[in-house]
Write a structure and sequence with these properties.
2 domains; two-stranded antiparallel ribbon; eight-stranded parallel barrel; alpha/beta; TIM Barrel
Length: 367
């Protein structure tokens, strides 16, 4: 496992994200499949991954509980825990932190984050007193390193990153957003401040693991032995400011492929980067909605629509035609026609996707 020094410790370049753990689809509520998830954690530990990321809101809190259970068999100093405070889920930051310690079965958090800083909520974080409180916990040793995860505009990132001498920032960073979003500018803001980065969404919620047939073919012709997803990880590894690259690995095939990618140092050659950018352009010409399946949009949907699923169907429809959404006509689950157009989903979306507009288009196609 590739290792990179961070302050006075060493971190694995690949970090284990615990937002997309395998679920028990056969049980009500779809709880975490603890047996399969434990197998992934054990393999990660065996192969040298020592950074484990979760959050107060993941799986309704069960992600933290599971991770606490899963890591009991390992010495506490053999891994690093990262979790987050989300002011929208519970503004009582004192109570949240104590609950997280209990869930995780620990008396300190290695990497603690203010969660999902956005243009509409950064002032709430700033004015709540939580940052000052977390700074005090850091002095007490209950937090080792303090950072935040960013889903805001570059201007807000620039402002929020100046509020405190942050130890790290978690940033959505991938080659697609670098080319067609604001990721490059955000990266440069962090580089100017010399703040190390933990990367989230390097494969854009799995969307960059399978591009279009043409783009996939271009990459496979260059390196037949590489998976399409591994190109995204190799691209991110080439950025000097990146400390850890997170991957939400939900099955053994994913973690084995990622371990192989991070088994030794090395990023893309200049020729490889040019090939990847050509594939990216081919992909962009056909991809319509940049959903990362974070599911922040789902909890407040009054119609109970599985929005990420519908956006996936929308992208598929745009790529392959209306026939691929015919199954939605007979589904008993909440459908695009049930959307009331309230816009709550768009307000929660890190990508600012106009979900009601897309639901209306799908509903029209499904008449």
């Amino acid at each position: 496992m590739e290792i990179k020094g961070y302050k006075n410790i060493e971190l694995s370049r690949l970090g284990m994200g615990n937002m997309r753990l395998p679920l028990r689809e056969d049980l009500e509520g779809k709880p975490i499949d603890r047996e399969r998830a434990q197998e992934i954690i054990d393999y990660a530990m065996e192969k040298g991954i020592n950074y484990y990321d979760t959050a107060y809101v993941y799986n309704g809190g069960d992600s933290e509980k599971f991770l606490g259970e899963a890591m009991k068999k390992y010495p506490r100093d053999s891994y690093y825990l990262a979790t987050k405070f989300n002011i929208g889920a519970n503004p009582d930051y004192r109570a949240v932190f104590e609950q997280q310690l209990e869930r995780l079965g620990t008396d300190y958090i290695d990497f603690y984050l203010v969660h999902a800083v956005m243009d509409h909520n950064y002032k709430k974080y700033e004015e709540s007193g939580c940052i000052e409180y977390f700074k005090e916990l850091k002095k007490q040793g209950k937090i080792r390193y303090l950072g935040f995860s960013n889903h805001s505009s570059p201007d807000t990132l620039r402002y929020f990153s100046s509020l405190y001498d942050w130890d790290f920032i978690q940033l959505q960073l991938n080659y697609y957003d670098w080319q067609y979003g604001s990721a490059k500018e955000e990266y440069e803001i962090c580089s100017e401040k010399n703040i190390p980065l933990v990367v989230m969404e390097p494969v854009r919620g799995g969307r960059l693991a399978d591009l279009t047939p043409e783009a996939n073919g271009l990459l496979k012709s260059a390196h037949p032995q590489w998976s399409v997803a591994s190109w995204a990880f190799r691209w991110v590894k080439g950025l000097d400011g990146v400390q850890v690259v997170l991957s939400g690995m939900s099955d053994m095939a994913q973690i084995k492929d990622n371990i192989n990618t991070f088994d030794k140092a090395g990023a893309l050659s200049e020729s490889d980067r040019e090939t990847l950018m050509r594939a990216c352009e081919m992909f962009r010409n056909q991809m319509q909605v940049p959903c990362t399946k974070c599911r922040y949009c789902c909890d407040d949907c009054p119609a109970g629509i599985d929005i990420p699923f519908m956006l996936m169907k929308y992208n598929n429809y745009k790529l392959n035609g209306a026939w691929v959404i015919e199954d939605l006509k007979t589904s008993e689950k909440p459908a695009p026609k049930d959307c009331v157009g309230c816009g709550k989903c768009t307000g929660h979306c890190p990508q600012s996707i106009n979900v009601p507009e897309i639901m209306a288009e799908l509903a029209e196609q499904l008449k």
